[in-house]
Amino acid sequence: MRLSDSIESFIKAMLNDESDEVELKRNELAEYFQCAPSQINYVLATRFSPDHGYLTESRRGGGGYIRIVRVVESGSQRLMYLINERIGDSLSEEECVRLISQLKEQQIITADEATLMAASVSTRAMGIPIPDALKNSLRARMMKSMLMSIAARNRT
Amino acid sequence: MRLSDSIESFIKAMLNDESDEVELKRNELAEYFQCAPSQINYVLATRFSPDHGYLTESRRGGGGYIRIVRVVESGSQRLMYLINERIGDSLSEEECVRLISQLKEQQIITADEATLMAASVSTRAMGIPIPDALKNSLRARMMKSMLMSIAARNRT
DNA sequence: ACTCTGTTGGTCAAAGATAGTCAGAGTTGT
DNA sequence: ACAACTCTGACTATCTTTGACCAACAGAGT
């Protein structure tokens, strides 16, 4: 069995026992598995990425930690579909607006949230000197990031 | 538990009990927490800054003190200040997060909105190949755009 | 008033404690 | 053999805590 797989199972077991959320110390975990601390990052990157349905946050320095939140299976089907399939690498402002208004119609987000999301991807917000292609790729990333956070909060 | 967090909680508890204002002795507090006096300054700088919604004043010498005041502003005042003065042409992710969480504490935005805003300016969302300076200028624009949309809806 | 001295708080740099990144070496499946 | 995946270590970034030295203020003594 690969080390990465063991660490993955270990973390998933913790997630099952406790809740949809777990907090750990990178160094402790590395110590436990007798491996380099950066191995933990590798596992997080390859098995607990947003694409895999997880969100992670961390803090460095004294009392630092890594927190992993499971979004998979709890976020609505619709959101996961958008994140994983519908939204690709690029999204125009018009497409964003269309998606946002659909989500509002389906009552997945509130009207206020829709306004907020639209404001963030608006032409006005994006007024920096970069090619349109980059702006649209940025919009896609922003939308995924926001939808991911909505999926996270919708978990029961 | 981090020392800084304990001290932060301690001070916030005092603020809740009494009023929007609290006065303390740096040395006494340091004595109480068994730490270097300058630790208190660190806590003030990292958790009670204007961006966090607090003002501090102090006096040295005999009878010296540190006074911490929680700033109370109306939502629209706060938003206007942020849009017109605080946020300039550039804002780091950390600054964004700080401002957002402060808006949440002052109940100008909901927790869900805070999460959404933070997601939109996150490093994850900004993962396109442009210089950091541009990313921060983009963050500033996005924040202003989002705050303006909130200000608009708040006008009743 | 002026100065001296004790009592406070302020600053800053260094040390300590964590986590992140990335290139390259090692391993495995086809 | 080749490509993809795994693992490590050196270097970096960030957050916390401490300590040495500095600055300001009050009150006593002159």
What characteristics describe this protein?
156 residues, Non-ribosomal Peptide Synthetase Peptidyl Carrier Protein, Chain A, Phenylalanyl-tRNA Synthetase, Chain B, domain 1, 2 domains, 7 helices, mainly alpha, homodimer, 3 strands, three-stranded antiparallel sheet, elongated, DNA-binding
Account of the protein in words:
2 copies of one chain form a homodimer. Chain A is mostly helical. Chain A folds into 2 domains: 3-70, Transcriptional regulator CtsR, winged HTH domain (Phenylalanyl-tRNA Synthetase, Chain B, domain 1); 75-155, Orthogonal Bundle (Non-ribosomal Peptide Synthetase Peptidyl Carrier Protein, Chain A). Chain A is 58% helix and 10% strand. The first copy, chain A, has helices at residues 3-17, 26-32, 37-47, 77-86, 93-105, 111-121, 132-154, and strands at residues 21-24, 54-59, 65-70. In chain A, strands 1-3-2 form a 3-stranded antiparallel β-sheet, sandwiched between helices. The radius of gyration of chain A is 18 Å and the shape is elongated. Chain A starts with a helix and ends with a helix. The model of chain A has no long low-confidence stretch (mean pLDDT 94). Chains A and B meet through helix 6 and helix 7 of A and helix 6 and helix 7 of B. Chain A binds a DNA duplex (30 and 30 nucleotides) through helix 3.
